[in-house]
Amino acid sequence: MLNDYVRPEQPSKEDVRERVRAEQSKLSTYGMKIKEAKLPVMVIFEGWGSSGKGSAIANVIKNIDPRFFQVATMDKPATPDELRKPFLYRYFIEIPEAGKFKFYDSFWMNEVTRDRIEGRLNDEDYEKRIRSINVTERQLTDNGYLVMKFFFHISRKEQKKRLQGLLADKNTRWRVSDADLQENKHYDKYLSVYDKYLKDTDRSQAPWYIIDASNRKWAELQVLSYLNLGIETAMKNQSLAVPILQNTFPLKHMPLLSEVALDKSLTDEEYKERLDELQAELHDLHNKLYRKKIPVVIAYEGWDAAGKGGNIKRITGALDPRGYTVHPIASPEPHEKARHYLWRFWNRLPKTGHIAIFDRTWYGRVMVERLEGFCSENDWQRAYNEMNEFEKELADWGAVVIKFWVQIDNQTQLDRFTDRQNTPEKQWKITDEDWRNRDKWDLYEDAVNEMLQKTSTTYAPWYILESVDKKYARIKALEIVIDSIKKAF
Amino acid sequence: MLNDYVRPEQPSKEDVRERVRAEQSKLSTYGMKIKEAKLPVMVIFEGWGSSGKGSAIANVIKNIDPRFFQVATMDKPATPDELRKPFLYRYFIEIPEAGKFKFYDSFWMNEVTRDRIEGRLNDEDYEKRIRSINVTERQLTDNGYLVMKFFFHISRKEQKKRLQGLLADKNTRWRVSDADLQENKHYDKYLSVYDKYLKDTDRSQAPWYIIDASNRKWAELQVLSYLNLGIETAMKNQSLAVPILQNTFPLKHMPLLSEVALDKSLTDEEYKERLDELQAELHDLHNKLYRKKIPVVIAYEGWDAAGKGGNIKRITGALDPRGYTVHPIASPEPHEKARHYLWRFWNRLPKTGHIAIFDRTWYGRVMVERLEGFCSENDWQRAYNEMNEFEKELADWGAVVIKFWVQIDNQTQLDRFTDRQNTPEKQWKITDEDWRNRDKWDLYEDAVNEMLQKTSTTYAPWYILESVDKKYARIKALEIVIDSIKKAF
Question: Which CATH number fits the domain that encloses residue B477?
């Protein structure tokens, strides 16, 4: 892209100045407009050292009310904690809220290309990252984000001139880093890595804009006019649904809930004996897991009163509390609701060697959010694929991903609800909402069936826990967790 | 993709047979459904020699009524005529009509990977092709096509076994080609080229399905179930608008029509003298063009009675009739309307060394089709980018692309209409529709302005021909054509 890039014709100095003013005044009106439209805008600046990204950001934000934007500088190395999360993590948690601009002084391109050039990424890992980035950028735009990506391009000669200019003055000398000098010295090598990255991540939903940065004012005009056009296009697209993607993930065949036999049970003695054995085994595995730095994600979904809580307790009962977290998932907070719906789960990922247990999960999207109309039909239809993609990221990172559906029949739920209602110390566990959800049993059952069919992948399969006999379900869960962890070793 | 591909678990023989039957009967009902929904379905089979593509196609079509599908075998080399068209041409003209299946026994992947392996495509040209293919597949899906791409994957050992089996029997020996043997011999080399191609063209709108083709029945099950799922998804998507893409093409700044001074004119003497000179020059250039094999596309749009016909005549007057074609563009025929709206223009491209002049063009999409409601708002809003992409293909192929807007003012049109009405030998030139269009002058003017702003690229610019004085417009057109061709040399 950098080699065969058609440079747009640069207008005269006066023309540039006049058009910059016009674009600036347009942009200044967009702050309020994107706030009203709840449009989140990511503006990513990448490019050569000394190509003027910093001053371009400074000039662009000058025209926006400070309440409407944030700036993030992402070119610092990952912290030790961040290194124990997936590559995408530290970027994903930085996405803006709906209705705000966020400007990024370099983003994942910077990290990936540096790692590539400095030999820290082999072909296979490079391609994994490219896939992760493309999937994420598409997920963001599908979910209403505007993602604008600018690459500031200057020639080797121009870069050299600027670096020498900075070095010549003792007040600016500090701004030239070793990395900048390396880049200029091995310009062609960097060019080919940048060029490949730009090609590999140039997608129709989030295309690259190559900015001719040979002149600062002219670069500013290009950024401003592309940005304004991009905002106009995104405003038009906001009301549109997004095409559902085809599923290309390897699926495991799942039964319908109505086909699941629920008469399985254990005697108290069988239960106690197995429980002790399995918890001891899991305890040992947890230590091993920690040493091998394998992260584990366990997702629980199921009917109200199916016995999720008690089931989770039997897992955590075997674990060292320093090595796991249980995340009870309720409705999202306002700052969570203002972002991509997976954001709050990205934020709760375990570190390597740790276990995260989710009591209810991202699958709320295709159950409660679907049935209560908390998201659009297009949103939940798209979500099956987005969750398969999310879990693929976790699996590729090396995580063990286990998903449980805790299953009971309608009558069992009624019995347990009635029992809760009639037992004073259990009454807190039952709410009007539980009774309302019960009325929608059939709709939920359809939704669950569709979810199981569409999201049980070979790398993150669903397991049904028959929980009319809770003891049976607990033992089965422990066995599956143990098996899955063993397979990962 | 082939290296790290997660093979789905193969069910038992009986399961496969049973599920194949279920998928077959589902597919057999889809013929009528896609006809009713006017959904065009492209099913592309690529893969290793002897991987069983042919028999898979045979088994799949068995379940579809012959009125609903066609099969195209695309692995023959391009004809000499096809070689004088852009690479995409011979594929694009083979797209199916709305409401029909078309099965392809190999498609552009086959040609590109062969050319790559056999050294006929350098890096740059390979990347151009990848870009062309990605753009086209996206354009097709954006315009309602379902594009399913299957790659039949077998191991080197399995392929060898099959080839030896075929060679051992004199009745099947002929089915083993030299190319197949080469492929098996240099399996790893082919694998890496295939793998790269699959990665380079795996896009969310038209993803690749890797088919585990180690067993024929199992391969058939995979194809059938992916195909059925794909059709179901496409049916759901049919009612959805498609997001408008951001413009990343280098645009030329264009004036508004109201800013164009129309008082330019030539005396009869000036006109005659310049006309003779310029036509002589163009005549010479046409010969040179032919020898240099440069194709030229000249597009004319403009107000009714602006003088397009007479202007075109002054161009063709200078040309050897064997080297150009004028295409008058009226409303599309039914078989044209049933396909992507650019199909009829792909079909009318010049050969290298030839000139194609379009009297009205693909820009009808954003003028008459927009204003008369012949396409949806989403269709014409998407079209600006699609046309920039179409013309980029032509420019990358080496074509000179020139676009004229023939401009007059409202009063001049009224005068010319009145003159036509009152002059018996000119009456055929004026219809009720012309008068009706006149009433929408302001709407058309807005549409033309938007078109000029959004589609005047550096590689296919618009030129405004001031045609109140037709002589002036003719001379200007000739000058621009001559200049543009000269620049291409």
Answer: 3.40.50.300
Q: Which residues contact A423 (CB under 8 A, 6 or more apart)?
A: none
Contact call for residues A184 and A159 (beta carbons, < 8 A): yes
Within a domain: residue B330? yes
Residue with tokens 């890096």: B123
Strand positions, DSSP E, A238-367: 296-302, 324-328, 355-359
CB pairs A-B closer than 8 Å: 87
In whole angstroms, give the CA distance from residue B110 to residue B6.
24
Q: Measured between alpha carbons, how far is A479 from B51 in angstroms, rounded to an integer?
A: 40
Q: Mean pLDDT of residues grouped by 10 in chain A (489 residues)? A: 77 92 94 94 97 94 90 90 94 96 96 95 94 97 96 96 94 91 96 96 95 94 95 92 90 93 96 97 96 97 96 96 95 94 97 97 97 94 97 97 98 95 88 90 97 96 98 98 96
Give the pLDDT confidence score for residue A459 in this predicted structure.
95
Q: Is pLDDT of B386 > 80?
A: yes
Q: Which of B3, B233, B248 sits opposite A244 (nearest CB)?
A: B233
Number of Cβ within 10 Å of residue A208's Cβ equals 22
Total domain count for chain B? 2
Q: Which residues of B touch A236 (CB under 8 A)?
A: 244, 381
Q: How far is CA A229 from the centre of its chain?
A: 27
Residues A488, A485: Cα–Cα separation, whole Å: 5
Task: Kindly state whether residue A250 falls inside one of the protein's structural domains.
Answer: no
Q: Are A44 and A148 in contact (CB under 8 A)?
A: yes
Chain A closest CA to B339's CA: distance in Å?
20
- Beta strands per DSSP E along A22-106: 41-47, 69-73, 101-105
How confident is residue B433, by pLDDT bands cut at 50, 70 and 90?
Answer: confident
- Same domain flag for A232 and A275: no
B151's enclosing H/E stretch is: strand B146-153
Best interface-test mutation with B: which of A204, A225, A384 has the largest number of B CBs within 10 A?
A204
How far apart (Å, rounded) are the C-alpha atoms in residues A476 and A457?
A: 20
* B374 falls within a domain: yes
Q: Order of strands across the sheet with A324-328?
A: A324-328, A355-359, A296-302, A400-407, A462-466
Same structural domain, B194 and B287: no
Its domain, for residue A39, covers 13-237
Say if residues B393 and B135 touch (Cβ distance below 8 Å): yes
| Residue B295 placed within a domain | yes
| Inter-chain touch B208–A248, beta carbons under 8 Å | yes
Residue B108 DSSP one-character state: H
Phi, psi (5° rounding) for residue A439?
Answer: -65, -25
Residue B269 to chain A, least CA–CA distance (Å) = 37
B169 Cβ contact partners less than 8 Å away, ≥ 6 residues apart: none
- Write the single-letter amino acid at B61: I
Scored b (16 or more CB within 10 A) or e, A234-271 reads beebeeebbbbbbbbbbbbebeebeeeebeeebeeeeb
Question: How large is the ipTM?
Answer: 0.82
pTM for the full model? 0.88
Are residues A455 and A363 part of one domain? yes
Residue A76: partners with Cβ closer than 8 Å, 6 or more residues away:
none
Nearest to B92 by CA among B64, B72, B77: B72
Per-residue HEC secondary structure of A157-216 comes to HHHHHHHHHHHHCCCCHHHCCHHHHHHHHCHHHHHHHHHHHHHHCCECCECEEEEECCCH
Which residues on chain B are in Cβ contact (under 8 Å) with A456? none
Which residue in this structure is represented by tokens 């011979």? B90
Which amino acid makes up residue A145?
Answer: Y
Q: Work out the minimum CA distance from B168 to partner chain A, whole angstroms.
A: 36
CA–CA dist B313, B326 (Å, integer): 10
